[in-house]
Here is the input.
Amino acid sequence: MHHGASLISTIAAALGLALALGFIAARLRLPALVGYLLAGVIIGPFTPGFVADADIASQLAEIGVMLLMFGVGLHFSLDDLLQVRRIALPGALVQIVAATCMGGLLALWWGWSLGAALVFGLALSVASTVVLLRALESLGILDTHTGRIAVGWLVVEDLAMVLVLVLLPPLAQVLGGRAEEGSDGSMASLGRALGITLLQVGGFVALMLIVGRRLFPWLLWQVTRTGSRELFTLCVVAAAVSIAFASASLFGVSFALGAFFAGMVMRESEFSHRAAEESLPLRDAFAVLFFVSVGMLFDPGVLLSRPLQVLAVVLVIVVGKSVAACLLVLAFRYPLATALTVSASLAQIGEFSFILLALGLRMELLPPEAQSLVLAGALVSIATNPLWFSAIQPILNWLRLHSSLARRLEARDDPLAELPATTAARYLSRQVVLVGYGRVGRRIAAQLRAHDIPFVVADQNRELIERLREEGGAAVWGDAAEPSVLIQAHIARARVLVVAIADPLNVRQMIDTARALNPEVEVVLRSHNEDEAQLLRQELAATVYLGEHELAQAMAGDVLSRALSPVPVPAS
Here is the structure.
């Protein structure tokens, strides 16, 4: 057989079977990724019949992780990351500690060693970025503040796991495992490893933000000048893969984190949207291979041989982590809807769990059965994760109806959730209510200020609302889909409601609330999709602006003004 047949047969079998089973899953009203995971189980080494090359599938899945994280970075600026730091940083760290304790106590109950319990708990504590991003994209909330919190949370988790992967080898002997070559388990060795890691990660981040933000947009512009679409696509893919590989090789950070920062610096280019579109087909195809590769690692026999242990692991991942995350988000005074969304985002494990598992087994910290349990927990949690996202709204409705605690949480006294008593009267009547203060909202606000038109901002970013109030602006914090937020923004006496966020799930609820309180209010929306824009115009009787349409109108107006202007007569 030809030497390349293993690669070809692996790709052909993985994509072909994933397509067939994904289609069947979709027809059965199940998430398509359930079909992808099942495809991996079928072509894996633990089931009879054709067995694909697991090493090749794993490497293809790594490329998928790189491309997917690169795509997220293209839509995620450094400002977005800094805006959620106050909740993402402490939230992720506390959640890792809580999940590690839950998994560790479970392992100790089974009679495992302290070192095994620690590594096992850490493996259950970190969620899969790939699974999260697919879920957020399918719901259309990746660009919302809640989506940014979830992504920022996982970026912090990834950074924490980079440190864990470096610190485990020096600690292996202390924890009862086998020390790796060059590590004596002393405090000096541990401190040296930690110092080197912090320098490497800090150096990588500094290099990307200082040099990369100037170099890569310039490179993309030079390639664009050639006029070759193939070279542009090649530049985008090469940047994602090569930067991710170089970051892992030179700085010790993960492929995923390297690709994410590559996308963030590439975002500074005016061609970032085109780069995202060009890489989308490859991202989707390789993301499917990621799910197939996870399925290939799974041994279905563990469900029969250790059913109670598998159930306990799944409960830690799906219930324990989710409850801990929900309580943490609520502790930061965010809405219940945001808490449930972040909880669903973390109710699974993935790529970093497998890396920790492999390292723990190599250092003889984990017993052999740990691999089967972690992989079973990963497969079940990934397969069921879309169900938790679909259950958010029903759970939210049920809690509001039956739980006095949930109602108190939403109605609790929060100084940012209502306008101060000292707010000037001009902001309380005939004002503009501006929902969302992102890139679009800030530009609208600048125009309103320039024409001295009073407006009230409603946004879910607490830090942003605090800053606006410090600057003397009128702003309320919360989800504008909740009636209380629009009431506090005095929508009942407003002249115009402007929804400057792309949130197709909640925009109808915002407008229904606004019209119920103020039938005369004018509504202005934005949309990214022409069909969606048409439906919004028809159903909601609102003015809807489509990005591409407005750009074309502005360009056409400029062209017409130039083309119709009189040609100057040269002086004789």
